[in-house]
């Protein structure tokens, strides 16, 4: 990997740290001479890797302090670097970084570096690699420049040293823009917001109570073209149109069309009114390289479906796209899509055909262009659009509209999705619930935990009927409203809501110890939280002289040194992630097991210039820490393990002598991206694709255990944790582990 590529990787792997070392343009010059340092531990900069960068008060170009980057044959990674960033909130044509460097036996090369970013993607990079500054020499001033891209949002900068050995000192850095000190240049004008357009503030004024098949077909075409133009036509991507309201302007003609050709003609006339599309100079290149997805745009070439003029117009727009975006950006420091300038329209008065159709079109096109897992969802997406038009757009009131959106969003098969603004209206509804935890075991709804054995429901009870309704029928009726990546997560979420309903008395038929009983109990105001299946008691426990246990639901990184000191000498550590971690743990725990820098994940990122394309990018490495734990590790997972919990399990599984024990996880990973919807509603998608380094899928699949194990109804009734017992047996090598030893 070249240093240019490594620096790109740096900004993906260590972004949370870099985000904390931003500095304002007005104060940047005060930190560039390093005279703000007070000890040999360099402060205020992001350092990579640790232990190779120092503040130096013995060698300086001027003043007292400089920075020293020092490498030897044992140094991790292929380079050392310091990094800070400033916002590009200034005007100018060329940005310049100057600085003095002193080299001693540098085996690779040393240099200053700068990188311009927009929406989490690199626009330009200069790192002096071509100058081949190497070997040894005294203080010399160097300069690097970059043309200031009009779209740049952040400017990263610093000093680097590559190679297996050597030292470089840096001092007296200076920033200039067009030859002026950076703090003296004019501020950039504020970015434009959605163009002022108030015509439909009080409603779309489009009222429809029924749709013919011809109208549905024409609306499918309109929805696809509207979304395509939103992310490709220069008049829209430049932010010159309120694209939501433009939909309402063309809708009446499309609804009035008697056939496909008349509708296509109306759409073409609408496109032409946006103005000509200039020939691109230079043109945006087609997406190439290590792609997980290409844009799904075969349909724009279908002249039999669109007609020759409309297809030709879309092809011309695509060929000359600018690569800019207005309605979407990439989240700084992460890279998942951020849906900016999307109106939530809280004033929506139901029923409003136009705004409700807008909700469908917005969500569906976000799935087509900005959802990294759109193919993994396993849907015929044009069929989803056609099937949803009547349900969403013709919904007669708010409740029907929300239920239609629940059903639509569930087609994403993404546990991060859901209509999060409206969970109270997802079946079953009610203000109260029976205060017990329920989980599905072998397709049976089982009481998992109870607050007390008071003669009501007991752990191990199999719930057969609620108020006379069979649980199997309730599950079949409700499942279309649950947006989950896999059946394990869907059953988990339905179990959490199963006993919801009106407050007061409720009759529940259960099977207990092989006999059917009717239990009279109460629904009370008891809000269900995100349950855990881990062991009660302290965060860290010694389960035996040879087995240590830690659960992540209550863990603190600051306590890890003490935990590993107590675990020293044990045969193995059980890390329980049948929960959601209270702190981010992959690297903090992983460092105790890693014997070398270890990859465990790769990501896919959207390309703003090529909507619908997603490119693989490298993930971070688990680095060895100063203390090493030599025992085995078992990671416990189940349907409660979701997102950060799954990411943590991926990381720890990559460690030596690690084994995953449990059952299917929730299958939803990657930073989430929020989507506002008309009516002040809100949903999300998994905004990054998360894969193993060999590009194996994790979304929907989840973390597949090495040893499959789950609870039993008998174990729950007896108060046993069957999965934890198997983990103990695997580490201690008892008779109960027979047949499983080969999993290591």
Automatic annotation (TrEMBL):
Where in this chain does the record put each Tail specific protease domain?
514-710
Per the record's keyword annotation, is ATP-binding included, yes or no?
Answer: no
Biological process (GO), any one: signal transduction
GO MF entry, a single one: serine-type peptidase activity
Quick one: signal sequence residues?
1-19
Keywords, in A-Z order: Signal
Q: What superkingdom does the record give?
A: Bacteria
- Which is an annotated Pfam family here? Peptidase_S41
Could you name the Gene Ontology cellular component terms for this entry? outer membrane-bounded periplasmic space
State the name under which the record lists this protein: S41 family peptidase
Organism of provenance: Occallatibacter riparius
């Amino acid at each position: 990997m070249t240093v240019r590529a490594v620096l790109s990787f740096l900004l993906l792997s260590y972004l949370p740290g870099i985000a904390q070392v931003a500095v304002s343009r007005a104060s940047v010059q005060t930190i560039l001479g390093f005279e703000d340092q007070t000890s040999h531990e360099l402060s205020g900069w992001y350092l990579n890797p640790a232990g190779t960068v120092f503040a130096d008060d013995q060698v300086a170009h001027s003043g007292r302090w400089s920075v020293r980057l020092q490498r030897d044959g044992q140094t991790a990674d292929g380079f050392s670097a310091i990094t800070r960033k400033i916002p590009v909130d200034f005007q100018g044509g060329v940005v310049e970084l100057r600085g003095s460097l002193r080299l001693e036996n540098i085996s690779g090369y040393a240099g200053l570096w700068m990188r311009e970013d927009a929406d989490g993607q690199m626009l330009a990079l200069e790192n002096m690699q071509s100058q081949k500054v190497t070997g040894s020499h005294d203080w010399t001033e160097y300069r690097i420049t970059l043309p200031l891209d009009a779209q740049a949002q952040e400017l990263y900068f610093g000093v680097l040293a590559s190679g297996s050995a050597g030292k470089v000192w840096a001092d007296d850095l200076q920033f200039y823009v067009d030859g002026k000190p950076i703090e003296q240049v004019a501020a950039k004008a504020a970015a434009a917001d959605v163009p002022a357009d108030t015509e439909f503030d009080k409603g779309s004024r489009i009222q429809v109570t029924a749709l013919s098949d011809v109208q549905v077909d024409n609306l499918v075409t309109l929805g696809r073209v509207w979304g395509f133009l939103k992310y490709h036509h220069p008049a829209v991507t430049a932010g010159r149109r309120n694209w939501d309201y433009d939909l309402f302007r063309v809708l009446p003609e499309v609804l009035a069309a008697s056939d496909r050709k008349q509708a296509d003609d109306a759409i073409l006339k609408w496109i032409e009114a946006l103005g000509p599309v200039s020939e691109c100079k230079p043109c945006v290149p087609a997406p190439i390289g290590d792609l997980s997805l290409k844009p799904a745009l075969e349909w724009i070439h279908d002249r039999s479906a669109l007609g020759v003029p409309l297809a030709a117009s879309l092809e011309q727009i695509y060929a000359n796209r600018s690569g800019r975006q207005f309605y979407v950006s990439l989240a700084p420091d992460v890279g998942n899509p951020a849906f900016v300038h999307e109106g939530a329209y809280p004033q929506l008065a139901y029923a409003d055909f136009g705004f409700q159709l807008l909700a469908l079109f917005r969500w569906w096109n976000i799935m087509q262009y900005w959802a990294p897992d759109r193919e993994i969802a396993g849907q015929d997406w044009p069929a989803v659009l056609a099937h949803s038009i009547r349900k969403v757009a013709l919904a007669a009131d708010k409740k029907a509209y929300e239920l239609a959106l629940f059903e639509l969003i569930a087609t994403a098969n993404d546990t991060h999705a859901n209509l999060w603004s409206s969970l109270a209206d997802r079946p079953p509804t009610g203000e109260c619930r029976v205060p017990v935890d329920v989980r599905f075991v072998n397709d049976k709804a089982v009481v998992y935990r109870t607050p007390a054995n008071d003669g009501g429901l007991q752990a191990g009870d199999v719930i057969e009927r609620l108020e006379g309704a069979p649980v199997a029928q309730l599950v079949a009726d409700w499942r279309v409203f649950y947006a989950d990546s896999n059946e394990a997560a869907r059953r988990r979420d339905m179990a959490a809501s199963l006993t919801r309903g009106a407050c007061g008395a409720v009759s529940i038929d259960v099977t207990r110890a092989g006999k059917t009983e009717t239990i009279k109990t109460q629904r009370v105001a008891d809000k269900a939280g995100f349950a855990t299946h881990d062991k009660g008691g302290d965060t860290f426990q010694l389960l035996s002289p040879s087995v240590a246990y830690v659960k992540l639901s209550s863990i603190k990184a600051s306590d890890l040194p003490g935990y590993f000191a107590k675990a020293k000498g044990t045969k193995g550590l059980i890390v329980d992630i049948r929960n959601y971690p209270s702190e981010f743990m992959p690297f903090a725990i992983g460092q105790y097991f890693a014997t070398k820098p270890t990859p465990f994940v790769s990501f896919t990122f959207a390309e703003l210039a090529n909507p619908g394309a997603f490119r693989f990018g490298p993930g971070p490495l688990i680095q060895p820490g100063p203390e090493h734990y030599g025992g085995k590790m078992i990671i416990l997972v189940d349907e409660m393990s979701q997102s950060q919990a799954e990411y943590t399990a991926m990381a720890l599984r990559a460690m030596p002598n690690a084994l995953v024990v449990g059952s299917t996880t929730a299958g939803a990973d990657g930073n989430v991206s929020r989507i506002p919807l008309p009516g002040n509603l809100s949903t999300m998608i998994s905004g990054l694709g998360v894969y193993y380094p060999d590009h194996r899928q994790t979304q929907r699949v989840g973390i597949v255990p090495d040893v499959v194990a789950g609870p039993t109804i008998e174990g729950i009734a007896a108060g046993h944790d069957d999965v934890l017992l198997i983990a103990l047996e695997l580490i201690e090598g008892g008779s109960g582990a027979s047949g499983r030893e080969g999993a290591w």
